[in-house]
Design brief:
Layout lengths: L4 H28 L3 E2 L2 E2 L2 H8 L1 H33 L3 H12 L6 H12 L4 H8 L13 H25 L5 H7 L4 H12 L1 H17 L2 H7 L6 H10 L4 H31 L1
Antiparallel strand pairs: 1-2
Helix pairs in contact: 3-7, 3-10, 5-11, 7-10, 7-11, 8-9, 10-13, 12-13
Family: Belongs to the binding-protein-dependent transport system permease family. CysTW subfamily.
Pfam family, one: BPD_transp_1
InterPro entries: MetI-like, MetI-like_sf
């Protein structure tokens, strides 16, 4: 498209300068707070953060819920995406629209809807009492279960969309050929579908895991102060404690976890492809 590299660089330079000025420089300044002290550069802020039992609990809870939401999204997403891909073109379009529809609704509205569903007088508790499984309302809100449900509902469409794209790019006759050769459905998925759709899984897994780590509204509303996660803890450190050093540490940890998840998923996909 461009006759020389200088033309391409000249066109990209304004966007690069803008991104550096409004994003990279502020992020670097924020992250540097966690390493910088009056005596120089140090890791003491990170040592202090991880030595606190509360911070350890919050870190492990965030990692656990992020991983759990990603795994469940992958399992449900593969089933849903496979069913959607095999629909007729007309029906497929309608179902894909239904999958995308939640993404057009504000996460705040979607999260508050779960209060109506999971509250003590909500639909779930009413149903449990109606069928005799519970004599009194059970507490679902402000628990890890509520946060998990909210995050799963929030990011599952991203996984489904990623897997639909990967499955549609897969050769149409591969599954039929594997079945003709005697492979059962588990073998078909493990040895045919999974290796051929690993890129979609990596993209979807990265989006879901990163989104689960960095989402604030859903853990804040459904978890409250009883189920702190790193993002809600970061908000508290800035707005309540005015502790920008701790906030910088948490922000850096979230960024590292996001990049690590992407690298790990790629390595797993590559290792699986080599077998």
């Amino acid at each position: 498209m461009f006759q020389n590299r200088a033309e391409a660089l000249a066109l990209a330079l304004p966007a690069a300068i803008f991104a550096a000025a409004v994003f990279l420089v502020p992020v670097f300044m924020l992250l540097s707070e966690g390493f910088r002290t009056a005596d120089g550069w140090t890791l003491s802020a990170y040592a202090a953060f991880f030595s606190d039992p509360l911070n350890q609990t919050v870190f492990l809870r965030t990692l656990k819920l992020g991983a759990l939401v990603t795994v469940v999204s992958a399992v449900v997403g593969y089933a849903a995406a496979f069913a959607i891909v095999n629909l007729s073109p007309g029906k497929k379009g309608h179902v894909v629209n239904l999958v995308v529809l939640p993404l057009m609704i504000s996460p705040v509205a979607r999260t508050y809807a779960w209060i109506v569903i999971l509250g003590r007088t909500g639909i779930v508790n009413q149903a449990l009492q109606a069928v005799g499984l519970s004599d009194a309302p059970i507490r679902i809100l402000f628990s890890e279960t509520a946060v998990f449900i909210g995050l799963l509902q929030l990011f599952l469409p991203l996984m489904i969309i990623s897997l639909i794209s990967a499955l549609e790019n897969m050769p149409k006759d591969t599954i039929a050929a594997a079945r003709v050769l005697g492979a059962n459905w588990l073998q078909v998925f493990w040895k045919v579908i999974l290796p051929l759709t690993k890129e979609g899984l990596v993209v979807g897994g990265t989006l879901v895991f990163t989104g689960s780590l960095t989402a604030y509204i859903t853990p804040a509303i459904l978890g409250g102060s009883k189920v702190l996660m790193l993002e809600t803890l970061l908000y508290q450190q800035v707005t309540v404690s005015n502790n920008f050093v701790a906030a910088s540490v948490i922000a850096f940890i979230l960024i590292v976890m996001s990049f690590a998840a992407n690298i790990l998923l790629k390595r797993i996909a590559t290792a699986r492809n080599k077998k």
